[in-house]
Amino acid sequence: MAIAHGEKILKYLEENGKANSLRLSELWNEDHQKIVGTVKSLLCLGDVIEAELHSTVKWDLTEEGKQVTTHGSHEAQVYNAIPPSGSTQTEIMTQASILNAGFTKDMAKVGFSKAMSLGWIAVDKSSGAPKFIQKVSSIQDVVQEHLKELASGKNMLTNELRTEYKKRKLIQEIIVKSYEMKPGSSFSTSVTKQETDLTPEMITSGSWKTKEFKAYNLNALGTPVPRGHLHPLMKVRAEFRQIFLEMGFTEMPTNNYVESSFWNFDALFQPQQHPARDAHDTFFLADPATASDIPTDYMERVKNVHSHGGYGSQGYGYDWKVEEAKKNLLRTHTTAVSARMLYALAQGGFKPAKYFSIDRVFRNETLDATHLAEFHQIEGVIADYGLTLGNLIGVLYEFFRKLGIEKLRFKPAYNPYTEPSMEIFSYHPGLKKWVEIGNSGIFRPEMLLPMGLPEDVSVLAWGLSLERPTMIKYGYDNIRDLVGPKVNMQMVADNPLCRLDKHRGTEIKEPDYLQELDIRMDSILTRLRGIENEVSKLKKKDKGSPEKLTLVIEADPNYPPLSVQTLIRILMASRNAPVSVTIHQHSSLKKACSADLMQWAKSTISNVSRVDNLFNLTWIWKPVGPRPVAKVVNHYNGDICGETAVARLLARILESWTDCAFYENYDLNTTAEIDDWLDMWENCIQSGDPNFVVLINHIYNRLNCSDGRKWLTGVLPGTKSLADVFLSTVLGHKLNSDRAKEWLSRCNSF
Amino acid sequence: MPTISINRDLLFSALGKCYSEEEFDELCFKFGIELDEVTSDKLIILKEQGTERSEGASEEVIYKIDIPANRYDLLCLEGLVQGLQVFLGETGFPPFKVIPSQTVPQRLIVKSSTCSIRPYAVAAVLRNIHFDQNTFNSFIDLQDKLHQNLCRKRSLVAIGTHDLDTVQGPFYYEALSPDSIKFQPLNQTKEFTASQLMDLYATDSHLRHYLPIIKDSPVYPVIKDSNGVVLSMPPIINGEHSKITLKTRNVFIECTATDLTKASIVLDTLVCMFSRYCQDQFTVEICEIETSQGGIKNYPILKTRQEKIDVNKINRMVGINEQADKVADLLTRMCLTATVAGNGCLSVTIPPTRHDIIHACDVYEDVAIAFGYNNIEKTLPSTNTIAAQFPLNKLSDQLRDQLAQAGFTEALTFSLCSKEDISDKLRKPLSSIPAVHVSNPKTLEFQVARSTLLPGLLKTIAANRKLPLPLKFFEVSDVVLKDKQRDVGARNCRKLCLVYYNKSPGFELVHGLLDRLMQLLEIPLDPTGTTGYSLKACDDATFFPGRCAHVVFAGATVGVLGVLHPEVVTSFDLNLPCSALELNVEPFL
Predict the structure, then answer these.
(1) I want to staple A552 with a disulfide (CB 3.0 to 4.6 A). Which of A24, A618, A721, B507 is the partner?
(2) For the ranges A63-67, A654-658, B490-494, which has the lowest average pLDDT?
(3) What value does the mean pLDDT take over residues B503-532?
(4) Could you tell me which residue ranges the Aminoacyl-transfer RNA synthetases class-II family profile domain spans (chain A) (predicted)?
(5) Which residues are CB-neighbours of A354 under 8 A, at least 6 positions away?
């Protein structure tokens, strides 16, 4: 059937080039859904046809609407059921349902009210009981006409009418999905039936050669495979076990949950009043309540070291009781097993050993989302001669590296049986903070020596829980979702492989930009240091006897270059030789300079002839704007423009004359810092941006605050430099001269 | 680990420096304490009692700091500041001194009647002390912290502090019958007998915890002055009469104890922390204790110990290579004043505040802390060993892999369970089971160690009934059984257990899996039961009659399999047939 239809469609397509499913359904008077089904099956054949899905909105009659087209609107049916003499409502109802069996009470209600409001019928109360009568002799049933039109495919309804008829539930909006088809790339008019899958018969008969096979839907999921699974926690355990084995650690026999207080606490030099030995924290046993057999000599040594000390220890100085030691409990840590192993190691003649275990331990704790009464402890132990705390740190780095954890840090901690003790923290890139991931330490001599271990043997140990890294790894926040009989086994089934060294989920490893930057920084610094050395060598070479300097500086009295003036003062003071400064004002000045401006360097003018002076300065006040100009006679070609440039020049001269560090005599970092400041000051002087005023104010206040920074550059509290001297100019220009003077007085003392 | 609450501003003003939270956290980390929480009174009340109650509470920042359990000297602001300042090298360690009395030393006479209840007492006097509100609060807080930690909730040591000017020595420490002790206790307006006090405090949220220490004793300890005024009834309450106030100038401190060493440590700690507020700073006045044997001992001891420590040994233990003088500096920063003593040794002074230093290794640790754990060079030990797996674990893991490959999913259930789980629910009397019983479980779930893995797996099924059938779970783990042969009277036993839960029992499937396991273990089927394995029909109350068999291997029963008894099924809230196999793994090693 489908094939027959299919071929019919293909033929049509061949003839017409394109087809629409709706059109075909009308043309062939066939149910549209059937045509659509055929189109879909044609589509499965590959590229025989191409089809595009179209949705169109269409108004159609409801069942009630269809009734109206045959029997008239509700109001007309009511009107028609009234005899000329009129009759009661009940009688009309009966009559109406004789005329149309599908006429319901609800329809009648609508009909009555519509007919009344149209003025077709009226109520007559003259003869007692109310009667309905026809008020007009004939009616025109517009509603029926409209619906008939709609049914015939014309759609002339106004929006209002459409809304009204929709409200009256006579018409409805339907969405018609249709296919627009055209021939595909492998178009053909004949259809062969496609096989779903290969069968044994096809293989035997060879019919597979001629058959066509239906394509697989590769976007659907496959069928779930029946399978078994290992528990996620045990998968993480396997990974830890593997790591220990890779590192050469031997597994300890930890299959003894019941332990005596002696091995669990006393042997570890944990005093008998220690809070961990409280019933609040530890499960003690009612049956078997006590241990029978503790090695007598060893127990005596343990008793002594607790109560009186020995082995270089003060002991705890309390009355040690064997009854307390014999109390049985569920072990609170696997270290109890480590103690037994170390004791055995001492008895058999000590040999270096590395042990590990991963097994259950018990705490009588209050349960919550992260605590259970039992959990798995991971423990590593190394016993050898001459082990150091540095060894422990080194081993922990290697151990955690195998877990994909690179960043560690260690916090001093307290543990009764280790000294030194360290809590291990790792940086969690997901949580962006340091989290505690374990405990570690070197076992105390008070624990090891009574066992009979040689005095120079140290034992390193560390421990962590198995559950915590597993919860972090797989993103659980409630431990009861992971362990215990209430666990959802679907979780077990869905759990991925455990690859601890591979980051996933919340642990996505961020590229270590910092480290990259560090490396780049280091290489840059090394290069800079090389350059620095060369520079200082060159400087030394350069330093002969100071040369004569003759300078002409032009500056604007409206923008006094305070920094240049200060530097010149310093230069003059640094030279124990005669100097000469003359100050002039240029004729182009509109206003005469004040006495202050004319005499700022007068006090230092010598009487010696200029020819013999080592430093001669001619200072000319001239309207040059904020950028003063310097000329070095006989030295440099060209003018030096701008205050920073002049200041740099003067600073270099100062540094070549004296050994003081002021600008380039500092290390390169500081010099770079000074240059940064100078660049900013230059910007600042030239810019009109009011934000600079705020900034300068802020900087100035910071420098005058008591928290330690006194100067702009260098490490706290900073070192005085060119940048500071230059600040005075900026203060003068941008804030006020008082500030500038205050600051200058601080800078002047060299 | 005790946590102390310190007002941040007071702390910083005492340290003479303001830190940002990160800076202070970093300092704490290096020093080995932990800034646990930053809060305020207001926040605390807000959290515990809601917005209304928190109105008007102080918003001053409080630092909650975790202190290692052995550093009693850091349990108050005074000690913490001293420790940090010395650590930062900003100040030296003060010399604590016991001074004689200007007149007659105070004497505390311990009567032999105390032997049966709380036999030791020590005492000291802080003379001409000046408290302000903050230091007074700190003094009270420190006593509380010591009570909670070192004093083991007052059971080992109880501290009483008194205004010496309100009482008249010598003092008597004795034990009397509860009804013959009558006094006005702290913060009460009338007198009570000791028995009445027990009733009064039975509902007191703070004090009721200490009542059991003496409640059932025929005699209660009490300290009186020479006029019979009751100073305290340790370890419960002090008397109102001798209560200390801000105005108190001379403080009489007594500690009663069941552990004399700890009492002396508590006394030393308390006087060292607060003698700084005495007119004659860092001094404490001696007290004479007349022991019940009649001898006289002087307290506080405030013993300063000298230890000779080999610098090489320190370097070797820590893994650093520092000169003696540098190591001495490091130790001095940890309040252990050290000087180079020649012969490659340091002379280390252990002050009375550092009772935690009981061995050279404690000194090594302080060197390492001062050097900075994170500055120590990482090295790998040269220890060369060949690894080995514990054979039983290796076998268990191999079997687990096989069970998962056979389509079963691993459950991980608890080792502890209720008595009912292993007896009634499995239709067996508890007396027949060699189970290990816990004496102090907090809930019914932890009454016994499991003797079988079955209940855990059945509970796992119950929690997973919504998953599609069949449910196939297994566990390979330890159960615990009583065993007189062992030193502790019990042993673990490695078991393998699996359950199959479906609309039909699936006995043949479980049976098939057993055959498969035996095939993997290279054990042949041997109905004679001498060398290989065989099944022998048996009666086991847990299983449906006629649907149960023992697994016999080399002549011994090593396991059981069968269809569970319907009553077992329903007692675990299940309603479908279930077969199970439980096998002892150890014989197959």
Answers:
(1) A618
(2) A654-658
(3) 90
(4) 235-485
(5) A247, A248, A249, A250, A380, A381, A382, A383, B383, B385, B387
Q: Which two tokens stand for residue A583?
A: 């100050």
What's the longest Cα–Cα distance across chain A?
Answer: 147
Whose tokens are 């032999």? That residue is B112
Helix axes A232-246, B391-405, angle to 10 degrees: 140
The one-character DSSP state at A481 is: G
Interchain CB contact of B157 with A (< 8 Å): no
Quote the tokens at residue A373. Answer: 């009464």
Which residues, other chains included, contact B275 with Cβ-Cβ below 8 Å and sequence gap of 6+?
B96, B126, B281, B282, B283, B284
pLDDT tens figures, B39-53: 888 888 877 777 777
CB-CB contact of B254 with B267 (8 Å): no
Matching residue, tokens 């002074």: B349
Tell me how many degrees the CA angle B26-B29-B34 measures, rounded to the nearest 5: 110
B278 secondary structure, DSSP code? B
Residue whose pair of structure tokens reads 């370097």 in the numeric block: B315
The residue in chain B having the minimum alpha-carbon distance to the alpha carbon of residue A273 is B152
| Chain A contact set for B376 (CB, 8 A) | 389-390, 393
Query: Two tokens at A616?
Result: 């001669």
Contact of B231 with B237, CB cutoff 8 Å: no
SS3 per-residue string spanning B365-427: HHHHHHHCHHHCCCCCCCCCCCCCCCHHHHHHHHHHHHHHHCCCEECCCCCEECHHHHCHHHC
Q: What is the dihedral of CA A609, A612, A615, A617, to 10 degrees?
A: 30
Side-chain half-sphere CA neighbours of A695 within 13 A: 14
Residue from B29, B150, B333, B361 whose CB has the most chain A CBs within 10 Å, to mutate: B361
**pLDDT digit string, tens, across residues A575-619:** 665 677 788 888 887 777 777 777 776 655 555 555 566 777 888
Q: Smallest Cα–Cα separation from A488: which of B411, B94, B588, B347?
A: B411
Residues 400-419 of B with CB under 8 A from A: 400-401, 403-416
Burial of B184: CB neighbours in 10 Å, binned 0-12, 13-18, 19+: middle
ipTM of the complex in this document: 0.90
Domains detected in chain B: 3-88 (3.30.56.10), 97-299 (3.50.40.10), 305-373 (3.30.56.10), 391-588 (3.30.930.10)
Q: B389: Cβ–Cβ under 8 A, 6 or more apart, which residues?
A: A241, A245, A251
Residue A284, both tokens: 């003690």
Name residues whose C-beta falls within 8 Å of residue B317's C-beta, 6 or more positions apart in sequence.
A388, A389, A442, A458, B361, B364
